[in-house]
Amino acid sequence: MLPSISVVIPAKNEQGNIGKLVKEIHASLEAYPNVEIVITDDGSTDDTVQEALEAAKECGCDLQVVSHEQSCGQSTAVLTAVKHAKGEWIVTSDADGQNDPSDMPKMLELAAKVSNPNFCIAGYRAKRLDTAWVRFQSKVANKVRHALLGDGVPDSGCGLKVIPKSTYLRLPYFDHMHRFLPALIKAMGGEIVVHPVAHRDREAGTSNYNAWNRAWVGVVDMFGVIWLQKRTKNPMIKAVSIANENAKQ
C-alpha cells in the first residue's frame, strides 16, 4: 500500500488556472485512498484562493490553503506547504496548469519501487511548449548545472517531483532551493529517478518568471550547492555494537 500523499502547489495570481488544476489532480489520483492537496497562496492579489476552494468543494477533494501575508517566493511557498502537509510523500506541481496531473500516478509507481528512503522522482519536459528563446536559455542553464552538479536531471525547472516529506524537511533551506532538489537529495545519499512528463500551454494569466530569473538568477546558489556537496558526508555503517541492551535503568 502506498504511503499517504500530499500534492503541494505554490501559487501566486493563478486565477483561471488553479481551479481546473485542483479538479484534474483529484481525478488523476482518485484511485489513491489517502491524498490531499496543499496550496500556498504566496501573496495573490486575485481570486486564486476562492477559486481553489470552490473547485475542491465541487469535486470533493481534501484541500487546505495556507496564505502568506506577502509574497515570499517559490521555494518558501513550497516549504510552507510541505510543513503543513499530512502526507508521507510529497508531490510538487506548478500552479499554472502546464504540469499535467495525469503524469502523477506513473511517478508514484516509480517511487514505490525505490528502496532508498531518500529519493526524488524528477519529471522532465520531453517536449516543451515554451518560446524558442526560453527553451534555449533553459537548455544552456541545464547543461551548465548538470556539468557542475552532476545530478543526472535534464530539466531542473520541471515542477513535477515526488519526494518523501521526511527527506524534504532534512534539506538545507535557501531561496531558490527548489531548482536544486535532486542535487541536494543526491548529496545526502538519496536516489534520483527521472521520468518524461507532458508540458502544456498556460491557459490564463502570465508567468511570474522573466528572461532573467528563469535561467540565471540561481547561478550564485548553484555554487553554494557545490559547496554543500563537497562537505556532505554519508559514511557507510560497518557495524553497530550494543552492550547491556536489557540492563535495568
From TrEMBL:
Pfam families: Glycos_transf_2. One of its GO terms (biological process) is lipopolysaccharide biosynthetic process. The keyword Transmembrane applies. The keyword rRNA processing does not apply. One of its GO terms (molecular function) is undecaprenyl-phosphate 4-deoxy-4-formamido-L-arabinose transferase activity. InterPro entries: Glyco_trans_2-like, Glycosyltransferase_2, Nucleotide-diphossugar_trans. It comes from the Bacteria. One of its GO terms (cellular component) is plasma membrane. Keywords: Cell membrane, Glycosyltransferase, Lipopolysaccharide biosynthesis, Membrane, Transferase, Transmembrane, Transmembrane helix. Residues 6-163 form the Glycosyltransferase 2-like domain. This is Glycosyltransferase family 2 protein. It comes from Vibrio parahaemolyticus. The lineage of its organism: Bacteria, Pseudomonadati, Pseudomonadota, Gammaproteobacteria, Vibrionales.
